[in-house]
């Protein structure tokens, strides 16, 4: 199953970065961001798309009451700002670095259109990514609207297991080594960090999982 929350089945940076194309390499630079730096704001002109070389970026928007809503947290190899390719003129979301050393590959929309026109494989991968991302955001909205917090967490953990997990040969547990903090996970499932911690501890007491900062272990059920 592809993840609702992120796109990890291909490292888009390795495929799409203009550094991979001789005609664009000499004029292409990377941008560096620290934690809490904004890459763009809502209403900014949409004239670029972005690839993450390293670090993490959150994508979101603010409600009329000023509350922050997180749509996605993206990691190395992922693309964002892609609606500019489809003709979006102004941003309807913000993008913010949440790592102290985030490196971003910015690509002008004109450059992207040139690359897509000249390379059919490149174009296919871009459109495949955009289609999958829209489906995942739609699924995530459904989860946030119609599922309780514990169910959202369980479904998120299953998605996380599909993308980052492996089965431990010793006991059959599923081990998930992931790049997300508890704050990241709480934001993605639409809850607070204290509530997430309570739910994780409840699941631990029920012998469903065990966890630490870098790893979640889904315990195999015994007959």
TrEMBL record:
The keyword Phosphoprotein does not apply. The keyword DNA-binding applies. It holds the Pfam family HTH_Crp_2. InterPro entries: cNMP-bd_dom, cNMP-bd_dom_sf, Env_Response_Regulators, HTH_CRP, RmlC-like_jellyroll, WH-like_DNA-bd_sf, WH_DNA-bd_sf. Residues 12-91 form the Cyclic nucleotide-binding domain. SMART domains: cNMP, HTH_CRP. Residues 147-222 form the HTH crp-type domain. Keywords: DNA-binding, Transcription, Transcription regulation. This is Crp/Fnr family transcriptional regulator. It comes from Microcosmobacter mediterraneus.
